[in-house]
Amino acid sequence: MAETYHLHEDPRSGNCYKIKLTAALVGHEITATQYDILQGETRTPNFLKTINANGRIPVLQIDGDQGTRFLPESNAACWYLASGSPLIPQDRFAQADMLRWMFFEQYNHEPNVATLRFWLAIVGKANLSPGQSAQLEAKRAAGEAAIALLDQQLSESAFLCGNQATLADIVLFPYTHVADQGGIDLESYSNVCAWIDRIKGLPGFTPMV
What we know:
Shape: globular
Number of strands: 4
Oligomer: single chain
Order of helices and strands: EHEHEEHHHHH
Structural class: alpha+beta
Strand content: 5-15%
Strand order of the largest sheet: 2-1-3-4
Low-confidence stretches: none
CATH architecture of the largest domain: Up-down Bundle
Mean pLDDT: 97
Number of helices: 7
Largest sheet: 4 strands, mixed
Distance between the termini: 31 Å
C-alpha cells in the first residue's frame, strides 16, 4: 500500500506551507484539514487526543501499511517527505551543513521573523498585549540579523549549501519571503531577494496561499 499524506494546518502559517512546498517539489500529493489557531481549534480535547497532544500544527498524517501515524514539527515532516530526494544531499558533511541551517531556522529565524509577521499581519498591532508590544523592537532587530546572515551566506553561493537547493532553502523560504509583512525591508537584502526568485523558479514550486 502506497503511503498517502494529509496535513493538519492553518494555511496562514509558514511552517505549514513549508511542508506543502516540500511535497510539491518532490512530487508527493498532499491533502489538508484546516484549523484556525486564533480560535483555539488546535486546543480542543479531540485534537489533543487524536492529532497532537502538544496542541500545535502543522502535523503530517501518514497513512500506509503501518496504519495512521502523526508526525508533528514542520522540519521533521519536511525531512520525511524529502527523504530519498535531491533536497537531502548524500554527503555526510553536506547533510550536517543543511541541518545547521534548519536548526538556525527554528532557533534564530522563525522565533523572530515569523513572530513579527504573526503579530503584525495576523493578530494586528492594536490587539497585541503590552508584553508583546514591548518585544517588537527586539524581535525586529533579531529578525533583521537573521535575514542579514542569510544575505551574507547567499553572497557566496546560489543556495544556502552550495549551488543546488536543499531542504535548508525550502524551510527558510516561507517566512523569509513574507518578512516584509512583519516590517522587515527585504529590498535591503539583494542576495536574499535573488535567492527568493531562484526558489520560485524551482520545478514544482507552489506559492503560499
